[in-house]
Amino acid sequence: MRLTTTSYAILGLLTVKEWTTYELAQQMEKSIGTYWPRAKSKIYEEPKKLVSQNLARARREKAGARARTVYSVTPKGRRAFQTWLQEPGAPPQLEFEALIKVFFAEQGMKEDLLATLERVDAWVQMRRRLGAEIARYLLSDRAEFPQRLHIIALTSRWQLEFTRAVEHWARWARDEVERWKTMDDPSVADTRHLEAQAKAVLGGEHGDGRESSERVGKASLDQHNPKKGS
Amino acid sequence: MRLTTTSYAILGLLTVKEWTTYELAQQMEKSIGTYWPRAKSKIYEEPKKLVSQNLARARREKAGARARTVYSVTPKGRRAFQTWLQEPGAPPQLEFEALIKVFFAEQGMKEDLLATLERVDAWVQMRRRLGAEIARYLLSDRAEFPQRLHIIALTSRWQLEFTRAVEHWARWARDEVERWKTMDDPSVADTRHLEAQAKAVLGGEHGDGRESSERVGKASLDQHNPKKGS
DNA sequence: TTCCTTATACTCCCAATGGGAGTAATTTGT
DNA sequence: ACAAATTACTCCCATTGGGAGTATAAGGAA
């Protein structure tokens, strides 16, 4: 039974403290879920894998008539986790359904497109409110892991950065689309960002004689994914 | 056989022009793949579903001794797609393995964390080069769909926005971590963004008497996902 | 005190998906 | 003339998603 990224995420939680499976599922949804979403049923399976490889230990507790299992990391598990921290991970991968609707928006009406963008913005506002609540909690004296605040600040900063990017894009797109008279006039396009990107020459590119744009027509936009193991 | 978001993505491509399955798989990877990544084998199955529901038609062509299937949209398919454009879609969902490594970085060494951030930055630079090539291609006279430029400008702007957000975060995080002497001193944390978020009062929140931060401790960070159908 | 709701603590299962392996003809480059 | 890359798919298994189901415990309202 091979370990997946999800296994290591659970193992990571166990390096912080011991948890019941229920708590692990909760934590996975609450904190890690925004950048590593996984089904609850799978999270219940993971700690068993860890135990079978001696990376964690299960302790059976009884709370009244009902039993619960508490998992804790073993020294071997801690070492395995440290090794994993050194390995390169998969690049970010995004699923963003609204962008498909945007990409084919000329099939629908301007109001449909604006409604799609409006919904994206509404999602952003919801996330921002949540972010504000979490920030207040993290800075309060009720925060559970004050010794981890500097680390948590790193990941929560990403959440903010991401939310801002979505908001910035959605609002720019809305303003852009509002200027359109029809859905199929490409001459009104705001292509300033494309021009800026086209002009930019970034380091690391090893020329092959041809204009780099000649290669794109047929080139795969592959992201050299290290694949497998999620 | 119910239609998934992937089905509609394929259907969307068919509203632009007819394609062979191979070309559809290519396009899905190249253009839509950055915000809706799906396995090639599944993309080969999708057009068959569309045909079975009369949303598309298959035409068999022979190129020498080898046959190929060309798919085109039907009027019913076009209508179905327009209806889909009006429906709300799933909110953005991200998988970002490096963030798990960051979130548990105090288990490893400072160099491990910096290496993780460096790899994220390297990925960003790769994407930026690709973005530049694509921009040059889109503005060139070899671009395949000039009549769609204004639409494509919207989605490619998102790519830029996202890449920038990752870059901005990775560099901020690197600078932040470089200041750390040990991995377990939370007092060095840069929490300015948390403070700013905590102070922010956003519209739409309906107070319930309590301080909003009191609700977070146990609250689920749910994103009200409309689930199902990808 | 009783009842109702919510939280805790899981298991089971099927449909959907990922992703690689495999086959073969055709085109392009050396 | 030959090799490599591209076109054009099919097949299949392991993994995952996600909902349904079961049951006890704790907290709050009537």
**Biggest sheet statistics of chain A:** 3 strands, antiparallel
Q: Could you name the ranges of chain A where pLDDT drops below 50 across 5 or more consecutive residues?
A: 205-229
Task: Work out the radius of gyration of chain A.
Answer: 23 Å
Largest interface: A-B, 127 and 127 residues
Q: Which overall shape of chain A is indicated by the principal axes computed on the Cα atoms? A: elongated
Overview of the structural elements:
Two copies of one chain form a homodimer. Chain A has 230 residues and is mainly alpha-helical. Chain A folds into two domains: 5-81, Arc Repressor Mutant, subunit A (Orthogonal Bundle); 97-194. Helix content of chain A is 56%, strand content 9%. Chain A has helices at 5-16, 21-32, 40-52, 75-86, 97-103, 110-139, 149-178, 192-199, 212-216; strands spanning 19-20, 56-63, 66-73, 93-95. A three-stranded antiparallel β-sheet of chain A has the order 1-3-2. In chain A, a hairpin with a 2-residue loop joins strand 2 and strand 3. In chain A, helix 1 crosses helix 3 (40-52) and helix 6 (110-139) packs antiparallel against helix 7. The longest helix of chain A is centred in the middle third of the chain and has 30 residues, at 110-139. The first copy, chain A, is elongated. Chains A and B meet through helix 1, helix 2, helix 4, strand 4 and helix 5 of A and helix 1, helix 2, helix 4, strand 4 and helix 5 of B. Chain B binds a DNA duplex (30 and 30 nucleotides) through residues 4, 6, 20-23, 25-26, 38-42, 44, 63-69, 218, 227-228, 230.
